Amino acid sequence: MALFRRPAPFDHSDWIFEIKHDGFRGLAYVEDEHARLLSRRGNQYRSFGDLGSWIGRHLEVENAVIDGEIACFDAEGRSNFNDLIYRRGDPYFFAFDLLWLNGRDLRDMPLTERKQKLREIVPGAPSRILYSDHLETRGTQLYHFAAEYDLEGIVAKWKFGSYLPNSNATTWIKIKNPDYTQAEGRVERVERHHAQSAGGVRLLEPELLGIK
């Protein structure tokens, strides 16, 4: 599911609003107590194999496909992109949509129904897979909260929408915080890390070098 971009927040009773976490978008494919984390282009995130193993062992499902964000968090619960890219913290999978569950394709269900089913299968704390909660109607309020706490922004989603993969159509809109401090120098830091890794430390997968 793609995200369009909008410069300003809005309020609407037909929309829900989520915090946008700063990490790597991924799909979790879970089956028989194993999980693979795949990028938007379908490449496996091998660096996050331990996280995938944890999800597979603790998610009590026969099979599932979950859309979410791989992220590291600081002591206040804010995503920390540097800790993620430099592998300085434990990564978590922030789950925000459920596409498949126990042999059933859920993509044509309304978003709010998919999220309800997702909430039911995400284990309670402590957990490395976390449910991405939302606020209904009040997108402007959530956006101001994100800006106040130096978060990347918010995502607006039409609550009746189905899941539309590999399509130019979308009912998801990202509204980014222009003053987000972790965005400063992002390209230079990633390129510098890539150059250092090429010198003998560790190369990141090409998927991890893209700037959203």
Q: What does it look like?
A:
Helix content is 23%, strand content 29%. By secondary structure, the chain is an alpha+beta fold. The chain has one domain: DNA ligase/mRNA capping enzyme (D-amino Acid Aminotransferase, Chain A, domain 1, 2-Layer Sandwich).
Sequence of secondary-structure elements: EEEEHEHEEHEEHEEH
Tally of individual domains? 1
Residue fraction in strands: 25-35%
Can you name the CATH architecture?
A: 2-Layer Sandwich
The whole-number mean of residue pLDDT values reads 89
Topology (elements, then pairings):
Layout: E1 4-5, E2 12-19, E3 24-31, E4 34-38, H1 49-58, E5 63-71, H2 81-85, E6 92-101, E7 104-105, H3 111-121, E8 129-131, E9 135-137, H4 139-148, E10 153-158, E11 172-176, H5 186-198
Parallel strand pairs: 1-11, 6-8
Antiparallel strand pairs: 2-9, 2-10, 3-4, 3-5, 5-6, 6-7, 10-11
Quick gist of this model?
With 212 residues, the protein is an alpha+beta fold.
What distinguishing features does this structure have?
single chain, 212 residues, alpha+beta, D-amino Acid Aminotransferase, Chain A, domain 1, 6-stranded mixed β-sheet, 5-stranded mixed β-sheet, 5 helices, 11 strands
